[in-house]
Specification:
Elements (H helix, E strand, L loop, with lengths): L12 H21 L12 H12 L9 H4 L2 H16 L1 H11 L6 H10 L8 H31 L2 H14 L24 H15 L2 H10 L8 H24 L6 H14 L15 H13 L12 H15 L6 E2 L2 E2 L2 H29 L3 H12 L14 H16 L1 H8 L18
Antiparallel strand pairs: 1-2
Helix pairs in contact: 1-2, 1-4, 1-6, 1-18, 2-4, 2-17, 4-5, 4-8, 5-7, 7-8, 7-9, 8-9, 9-12, 10-11, 11-12, 11-14, 13-16, 14-15, 15-16, 15-17, 16-17
């Protein structure tokens, strides 16, 4: 008698990541809909609660309601928890609770964690998870402590909550702020444009959160012995430094000409750092030149680094494409950097990711411009901010209709979860060992 064995179908790690983010977003939206979540005590419409939840979990910062004046203490707490969950990653948070409860982490869970934080190997993944969570909480506490004197001076006992919220929001590259009022909403950190302490602390938190946990693992393990770092960490550090310094010099020369030298330097550097996926702003973005806005769009699309709290195409993707262009110009077959040769699959993946982001960025911008009858550059700025999970805005997001808000929601989700993750989650590729005949095609 033959026996039929039914195997339990398991979800892939990529599907678990996508479904995990979606579940947290849905729960967050339901909580934000509650009357207790708003200052007025009225129920928030579902589409506004969903937009806010997606923006928080996807650590973006685009909002349709001013966070400081619209949401109550309960609502702000929900948003902060969503930011923290989204910054660390849903899978990381889930595994952390499993570790705290003393449960054994299965091989499947370890594999999912590896994909979630872009770790190179599955070995040591539990140690890396503990390091990520402990490091995050420690750095956020330091940031809160550093900003507390300023916020306590300006807001009294409420300054403790302000310092804690902005520290978590900055480290997670979320861009949510509580400084808006009913009379002056959506002000972000503009009142602290000339405050060195707030500027420096926020920038440091953004950079630390944006370079990735693997990079910080290298820094903590090998200290100043940079030669011992992973090639990925070296690429991230060099690329991040260049993407901060070069735009900062550009903004200093082109914009903020009416400010003092010190304020101009702070504003230029802050704008260069925050554009990478943080979403805070100390200056009036609408007053910046069209050229500067275009540069900011490029920076927003690049985003942070893999395995970090940031979104976007990632610095490594940008670096691989630049290195590939250099190798092609020098007529070399392989990409060589720091004494190593890069895998050809990295080039293909980088090209795929860039194509996806550019297509979605343009389609989204054109669609919103057509629906809302707004200037295309302004709409492209918003879609770049959404897909790069940045949160910077030229002020049009709160005025958008539901269809346009839905477009930004999809772009934010795509930008945080990641293009390749969504592709692998949607498509099951089966290897049958059969290859079609090879044919060459001319490109370029």
């Amino acid at each position: 008698m033959s026996k039929v064995v039914h195997r339990k179908k398991r979800l892939s790690s990529f599907k678990l990541i996508v479904l995990g983010f979606a579940a947290v977003i849905f729960v967050g939206a339901l909580l934000l809909m509650l009357p207790v979540s708003s200052v007025s005590g009225t129920q928030t419409p579902f589409h506004e609660a969903l937009f806010t939840s997606v923006s928080a979990v996807c650590v973006t910062g685009l909002v349709v309601q001013d966070t400081g004046s619209y949401w109550s203490s309960f609502g702000q707490t929900v948003i902060l928890l969503l930011i923290q969950t989204g910054g660390l990653g849903v899978i990381t948070v889930a595994v952390s609770f499993a570790i705290l409860s003393g449960r054994k982490i299965s091989l499947m869970q370890r594999s999912t964690m590896q994909d979630a934080i872009s770790a190179p190997k599955i070995g040591g993944i539990v140690r890396l998870t503990k390091f990520s969570v402990q490091g995050t909480l420690f750095i956020e506490l330091l940031g809160m402590t550093a900003m507390l004197p300023v916020f306590f001076r300006d807001y009294g006992i409420k300054g403790i909550w302000m310092a804690a919220f902005h520290s978590v929001s900055a480290f997670c590259n979320a861009g949510f702020d509580l400084l808006g009022t009913s009379s002056q909403p959506f002000v972000s950190l503009s009142r602290y444009i000339a405050n060195p302490l707030i500027n420096l602390v926020i920038m440091l938190l953004i950079i630390i959160g944006g370079i990735g946990f693997l990079t910080w693992d290298d820094i903590c393990t090998h200290k100043w012995h940079i030669r011992r770092y992973r090639v990925q960490s070296k690429v991230i550090l060099w690329t991040s430094a260049l993407l901060i310094i070069i735009p900062a010099v550009f903004f200093f020369v082109v914009d903020f000409t009416g400010s003092s030298t010190g304020t101009r330097l702070l504003a230029s550097t802050f704008q260069s750092v925050t554009t990478r996926t943080a979403g805070f702003n100390t200056a009036d973005l609408t007053a910046m030149t069209p050229t500067s806005k275009s540069v900011m769009i490029l920076l927003m699309l690049i985003g942070g680094s893999p395995g970090s709290t940031a979104g976007g195409m990632k610095t490594t993707t940008f670096a691989v494409l630049i290195l590939n262009m250099v190798a092609t110009f020098r007529q070399k077959e392989d990409i060589e950097i720091f004494g190593r040769r890069l895998d050809s699959h990295a080039i293909k993946n980088a090209a795929t990711i860039v194509a996806l982001y550019i297509i979605l960025f343009f389609i989204g911008g054109i669609a919103i411009s057509s629906i809302e009858h707004l200037p295309l550059l302004d709409c492209l700025f918003e879609t770049a901010s959404a897909v790069g999970t940045v949160g910077l805005t030229l002020g049009i997001t709160p005025t958008l209709g539901i269809p346009s808000q839905l477009i930004l929601i999809l772009l934010m989700f795509f930008g945080r979860v990641g293009g390749l993750t969504l592709i692998y989650a949607a498509i099951s590729v089966k290897q049958n060992g059969v290859k079609l005949p090879l044919e060459k095609i001319t490109v370029g």
